[in-house]
Amino acid sequence: MISGVRTGVIATYEDGAVAHRIFVSGGFAEVTAERCTVLADEAVFLDDADRSDAEARVTAAREAVQDADDDGREAAQARVDVAEALLAVIDAGAS
């Protein structure tokens, strides 16, 4: 089975416990009897995520929206949405 993946967090498990939490910005997942393969547009291991980098990314993305012409505004807004989602996940993990 192949399915679309929305922006969010994927957890990987080892021995019944969460081994890694990975932020993905969308993509596709293929599930078979043996495994699940995720092809993500972007993936960030949350153990390696840095809040200040995420904040800078949000700021840059918002500036790109302001500077974008009509043709590029939708793509620029999508970058804002992903950057804000990453920041929200980082903040949720910190609390």
> Main β-sheet: number of strands, strand sense, barrel status?
4 strands, antiparallel
Give me the Rg, rounded: 15 Å
Specify the oligomeric state: single chain
Kindly name the structural category. alpha+beta
Helix tally?
2
What pattern of helices and strands is seen along the backbone? EEEEHH
- Sum up the overall morphology in one term: flat
Estimated helix fraction? 40-55%
Mean pLDDT: 93
Distance between the termini: 36 Å
What is the strand tally?
Answer: 4
Low-confidence stretches: none
Strand content: 35-45%
List keywords for this structure.
95 residues, alpha+beta, 4-stranded antiparallel beta sheet, 2 helices, 4 strands, flat
Strand and helix layout:
Blueprint: E1 2-14, E2 17-31, E3 36-40, E4 43-45, H1 51-67, H2 70-94
Antiparallel strand pairs: 1-2, 2-3, 2-4
Helix pairs in contact: 1-2
Explain what you see.
- This protein is of the alpha+beta class and 95 residues long.
- It is 44% helix and 38% strand.
- The protein is built from two helices and four strands, in the order ββββαα.
- It has helices at 51-67, 70-94, and strands at residues 2-14, 17-31, 36-40, 43-45.
- Strands 1, 2, 3 and 4 form a four-stranded antiparallel beta sheet that branches.
- A hairpin with a 4-residue loop joins β2 (17-31) and β3 (36-40).
- α1 (51-67) runs antiparallel to α2 (70-94).
- The longest helix is centred in the C-terminal third of the chain and has 25 residues, at 70-94.
- The termini are far apart.
- The mean pLDDT is 93.
